[in-house]
Write a sequence for this structure.
């Protein structure tokens, strides 16, 4: 885990922890937004790879990260409709929650600050 990724202890929340997203988390949340209303694993993976200039993002990393973000109430998921061309299987669709949208905005604001400017710390909560 890189030093920028947050880990949450039991009972910890935005109010008690600096809630900046790790680079992969932010990448995937932006990819969910890029993929739109049909955001599912493969479409999110493709959107993330486009954002990385074609560099590979594994589907396993996509799902692992999205499920972790779901446990943090940053994204939500639900099964889509069965698709004939998928043999009747359902896609798992994803979208950002309000908390996820706020986390993306907060992280993007922090990234726009000059190096050494820690004023974003006051934005938490």
């Amino acid at each position: 885990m890189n030093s920028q990724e947050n880990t949450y202890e039991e009972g910890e929340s935005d109010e008690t922890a600096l809630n900046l997203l790790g680079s992969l988390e932010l990448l995937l949340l932006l990819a969910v937004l890029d993929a739109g209303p049909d955001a599912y694993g493969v479409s999110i993976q493709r959107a993330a790879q486009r954002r990385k200039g074609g560099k590979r993002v594994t589907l396993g990393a996509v799902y692992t990260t999205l499920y972790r973000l779901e446990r943090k109430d940053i994204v939500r998921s639900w099964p889509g409709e069965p698709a004939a061309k998928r043999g009747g299987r359902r896609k798992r669709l994803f979208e950002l929650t309000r908390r996820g949208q706020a986390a993306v905005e907060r992280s993007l604001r922090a990234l726009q600050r000059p190096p050494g400017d820690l004023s974003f710390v006051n934005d938490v909560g």
